[in-house]
Amino acid sequence: MATTPSTAVDTIFAADEDAPIPYMQRTRDYYLALGYDNPYRWAHFVDVPFTPLRKPLAASRLVLISTAAPYQPGIGDQGPGAPYNAAAKFYQVYSGPVATMPDVRISHLGYDRDHTTAEDMQVYFPLARLHAAVAAGRIGAMAPRFHGAPTNRSQRVTVEQDGPEMLRRCQEDEADVALLVPS
Questions:
Q1: Which of 130, 136, 174, 183 has its CA 20 to 30 A from that of 17?
Q2: What tens digit of pLDDT does each residue of 75-133 get?
Q3: Strands 94-97 and 145-148, how do they pair?
Q4: CA distance 162 to 166
Q5: What Cα–Cα distance (Å) separates residue 77 from each residue in 25, 104, 108, 144?
Q6: Is the model's pTM score more than 0.85?
């Protein structure tokens, strides 16, 4: 016996409060609340250069760039459940070896602590996953160091100082490709 396909759609709508977090507006509001004269303006450019890989990823040397901060004893809670800790911020590009797992954390960043945690370090610093990708042959090699990108909220300093310094270090490490992991 043939059946007629149903035309009714059983759609269940999410609750009104189950919506994406409006982080861009929240960031603008936060800057105004901090006393800045203008809301935060996201950096975006008319033309963004794109350079395709010169060789396959499986033959490339990858460098990890992260906004995670090195753990600093004595400046307050920096653990996975820590509240925002401005004292843990860093203001200079730093580098560390990838041969061992560094102790880096994200308590210095303003992320939504109500809806996420910092318990899984691989989310904000996926070094172990990258080593596994190298072992599986998906990435050719890791650069000898990772690099930390400051989050000091100055687009001018990022463009004029931190970006060029990270590029210099990546070139020094002979990296073919960079994976930027903002937290």
A1: 183
A2: 999 998 899 899 999 999 999 999 999 999 999 987 778 877 888 999 899 999 999 99
A3: antiparallel
A4: 6
A5: 28, 13, 10, 30
A6: no
DSSP character at residue 15? P
Quick one: tokens of 13? Answer: 């709508």
Tell me the per-residue pLDDT of 50-85, one tens digit each, with 9 for 90 and over. 888 999 999 999 999 999 999 999 999 999 889 989
Q: Which residue, among 87, 83, 57, has the nearest Cα to 71 in the 3D structure?
A: 87
Tell me the domain boundaries of the chain: 57-181
DSSP track, 42-71:
----S-------SS-GGG-EEEEEE--EE-
144: its two tokens = 């000898």
- Interacting residues of 98 by C-beta distance below 8 A, sequence separation 6+: 64, 127, 130, 131, 142, 143, 144, 145, 146
State the amino acid at position 66 in one-letter form. Answer: S
Q: Which residue has the tokens 């936060």?
A: 30
